[in-house]
Design brief:
This is Carboxymuconolactone decarboxylase family protein. InterPro entries: AhpD-like (IPR029032), AhpD_core (IPR004675), CMD-like (IPR003779). The chain has 7 helices and no strands. It is an all-alpha fold. It has a single domain, classed as AhpD-like (Up-down Bundle). The radius of gyration is 15 Å and the shape is globular.
């Protein structure tokens, strides 16, 4: 099946996702979570979805916001490292739950580390990142050196 640039074929739908993205980003910012964590969530969701375009973009964004290469190198196996705080671990587990929709209790995240507002903010960010990954993958956005 041919790849079609979805944003060009249906620009109004693309603009709707863009508006949803802006709302999710604003909710995340209001939640009190670190902006670097937003990039880690986007990176982890993009890893799970296999979206090279979004991985490159959000890795660069994370580095520009002061994220370290060590933490970026292990985010794919965050649960095995000691690089992430309890709050970050809870947010990454939640992002995985939203992306993979696994059987309950795959990751321990119900430990009161995140507030209801933060749970909602991380969930919306992961939901919109899943949408962006699917747009980029289905559109065949080029990813070259």
């Amino acid at each position: 099946m041919a790849r079609v640039n979805l944003s060009k074929q249906h620009p109004a739908a693309y603009q709707g996702v863009l508006a949803l993205n802006q709302e999710a980003e604003a909710a995340f910012a209001r939640s009190g979570l670190d902006e670097k964590l937003a990039e880690l969530v986007k990176i982890r969701v993009s890893q799970l979805n296999g979206c090279a375009f979004c991985l490159r973009m959000h890795t660069r964004d994370a580095l520009n916001k002061g994220e370290t290469t060590d933490r970026l190198a292990v985010v794919a196996a965050w649960w095995e490292s000691q690089y992430f705080s309890e709050q970050e671990r809870a947010a990454l587990a939640l992002a995985e739950d939203v992306t993979e929709l696994p059987v309950p209790d795959r990751h321990e995240r119900d430990n009161d580390v995140l507030t209801d507002e933060q749970i909602s903010a991380v969930s919306w960010l992961a939901i919109v990142m899943n949408a962006w990954n699917r747009i980029a993958i289905r559109s065949g956005y080029p990813v070259g050196p």
